[in-house]
Amino acid sequence: MFGGRSYPLPRCWSFYIFICVICQFFFYLVILRNRIHAEKPRSEWLPHENNSDWRRFISRGPKRSEEYYQYNLQLSNTLEAIRDVPRTRHASCDSHTYSLPPSRQAQVSVVISFHNEARSMLLRTIISLLRRTPTDYLHEIILVDDASQDKTLFEDLRPGLGSQGRPWFFFLTNQRRKGLIWSRNMGAIQASGDYVLFLDSHCEVNEGWLEPLLERLALKPNLAVSPVLDLIDPVTLGYKKGNELLKGGFDWSLHFHWLKRDLANQELPEHPFKSPVSSGGVLMMSRKWFLKLGSFNSNLKIWGGESIELAIKLWLCGGQIEIVPCSRIGHIFRRHHAFDFPPHSHEQQQQHHQQEEEQELELSPAQATYLHNSKIIAESWLDDYKNMFYALKPAARRIPLNHTFHQLHQLRTELQCHRFDWYLRHVSPELSLMLYEFAATGTLRNEDRCLHHPGVKDSRQQLILVNCYRDDITQWSLFRSTGQLSTQREFCLGVDLHQEVTLKPCLRMNNTASMSQQWHRMDTHLVHNETHLCLENPVQDRLVLAPCRWHAVSQSFQFSLEMERQT
Ligand code: UDP
Ligand code: MN
Predict the structure, then answer these.
(1) Average pLDDT of 343-367?
(2) What is the position in ligand 1's atom list of the atom closest to the CA of 117?
(3) Would 93 disulfide with which of 89, 112, 457, 462, CB 3.0-4.6 Å?
(4) What single DSSP character describes residue 157?
């Protein structure tokens, strides 16, 4: 049919096919190269121990003492940028198959705010994240430098981290010190991931830290999760397993505490468990939910109370908090703050007034900040139970607040938040127990002065009567069951063989000598059970036992909170 004329096309075709194959080959080569480049973990081209870049980066930091950082700086500088840490989670966590949401729906933004962190420590935090987080899920790392003194840190860090590809890095700098709370909020606003993780700048995430958290968050959108925090020793930098049998909580002074938890029948210690407060400040949750809850309360200053405030808000307004023991993050627990608390107010005049007030109350800036923040929590969320807080922290009444609670009331209505007694009933029975355990609690006042124990030595002379508004004023508790009158340091008021008033470590109730530490209330008097004599303050700073005289002012003692008066 088509014979007769021979066309040159077939030869031409083979030529075109040859060209196409060559083109395709190059095309795939380019794509493959790009893919390899895109998937190359960023940490590979990060500075590491034998890399002079890493050494140079550290050596360019300011020279400071260990006291400045409150951990072993020298050791941190000599350790590798990434080191092996012990597997601290339960073995069953490794064999479990985690049901993870698709990565496009679970992009994680990490927010790290820091003030004067050592370079080696900050970088170790970042590199552990890069090495031990599945690349698909790690969207970005947002670093907020809260006016650190190391002014060239970001400049020196940026080239090592590269500028293209995931995870994206953002470098935010506060020219003036704004504090952790403001800075974390800023980071969350800047973030664009589905979830936000707040992390301290002296952490090392352990292998497989993210998957157990994501699995839980995918199940409950209004959940906030924390890993179990492993302990990095500030002196040896040794990495030790944290305790999965502890949950986060607080007392009526609004101080954070770790609380022992009981395992329910069949409950394994490695299972996720509900917690009244998250583990310290390390917390991950939906970014939108965090913003909807009003972020960390922006009226809180600098540092302190923010995780308690967020926890109460979460629980009362439809969320939950879980600690997930299969997720482990090491954190340096420092003994003291490594930073100062600047007096902090926008208006000069208010600041001046506030400083005067603080001086009069003999408060350090740290104590004043803590009281200020706690007062906001009490006023925002505790309803009538705020009186419990004021009873224990009378000085807080005199701390001025410079804002109204209008926005907060709006939030409570909008999200139909429960009242605080719901938290007591459903979230923290420990806190409500503290209400019923005591017959009376708080400061112990005689006329215009309060009974105070300044030291830990058990000598009688240690008991003095001082201004009731001192921030460190001793809090006393009269236990309903034992009749013991105890300080927070567990020293009990007692009577010795010479009928002198003593302060000694509290005795157990099965100890026969414990009778000497038993008291009861008769109107405003404190009557010693064994001798039937009354506590009296006849002259300044002297406490004696004397026959009860019901109208004697020197025998009248008031607790700041009487649960029930026994007459
Ligand atoms: N931080 C901050 N600004 C401040 C105080 C603290 O950014 O004004 C940072 C600090 O560097 C750390 C985090 O907040 O990364 C938590 O502070 P810290 O570790 O001292 O608290 P702790 O872990 O002792 O509760
Ligand atoms: Mn910390």
Answers:
(1) 64
(2) 11
(3) 89
(4) H
* Gap from CA of 279 to ligand 2 centroid (Å): 11
The C-alpha atoms of residue 34 and residue 125 are separated, in whole angstroms, by 28
Q: Rounded distance, CA 497 to CA 509, Å? A: 19
Are 319 and 293 in contact by the 8 Å Cβ rule? The answer is yes
Ligand approaching nearest to the C-alpha of 113: 1
Q: What is the pLDDT of residues 94-103, one digit of tens each?
A: 999 999 999 9
Residue of 123, 279, 329, 339 best suited for mutating to test ligand 1, as the one with most atoms within 8 Å of CB? 339
Report the distance separating Cα 541 and Cα 342, nearest Å. 35
User: Distance between CA 286 and CA 293 in Å, rounded?
Assistant: 11
Q: How far apart are CA 114 and CA 238, in angstroms?
A: 22
pLDDT of residue 121: 95
The amino acid that residue 174 corresponds to is N
Which of 116, 201, 306, 340 has the most ligand 1 atoms within 8 A of CB, as the residue to mutate?
Answer: 201
Specify whether the backbone of 68 is left (phi greater than 0), alpha (psi in -120 to 50) or beta: alpha
- The CA distance from 384 to 390, in Å, is 11
CA distance 376 to 379: 5
Amino acid of residue 111: V
C-beta 408 within 6 A of ligand 1? no
What are 145's two structure tokens?
């430098």
Give the integer Cα–Cα distance in Å for 317 and 293: 8
Asked whether 131 and 198 are in contact (CB, 8 A), the reply is: no
In angstroms, the CA 500 to CA 495 distance is 5
391-404 as b/e, with b when 16 or more CB fall inside 10 Å?
bbbbbbeebeeeee
Closest approach atom of ligand 1 to CA 116:
11
CA distance 468 to 398: 12
Least confident of 347-356, 429-438, 439-448, 467-476: 347-356
* Sign of the torsion angle spanned by Cα atoms 206, 207, 211, 212: negative
Span 232-285, pLDDT tens digits: 999 999 999 999 999 999 999 999 999 999 999 999 999 999 999 998 789 999
Phi, psi values for residue 79, rounded to 5° = -65, 160
Beta strands 544-546 and 558-562, pairing class = unpaired
Separation between Cα atoms, residue 430 and residue 424, nearest integer Å: 8
**What's the pTM value of the predicted model, to 2 decimals?**
0.81
Mean pLDDT of 517-525: 94
Residue type, 43: S
Q: Kindly give the residue spans of alpha helices, DSSP state H, lying in 191-298.
A: 210-219, 287-292
Which amino acid is residue 203, in one-letter code? C
First to last CA, the chain: 124
> Which of 114, 119, 124, 257 has the most ligand 1 atoms within 8 A of CB, as the residue to mutate?
114
Ligand 1 binding pocket includes 301 (Cβ within 6 Å) = no
Q: Please, what are the domains in the chain?
A: 42-92+100-332 (3.90.550.10), 434-562 (2.80.10.50)
**What's the gap in Å between 331 CA and the centre of ligand 2?**
6
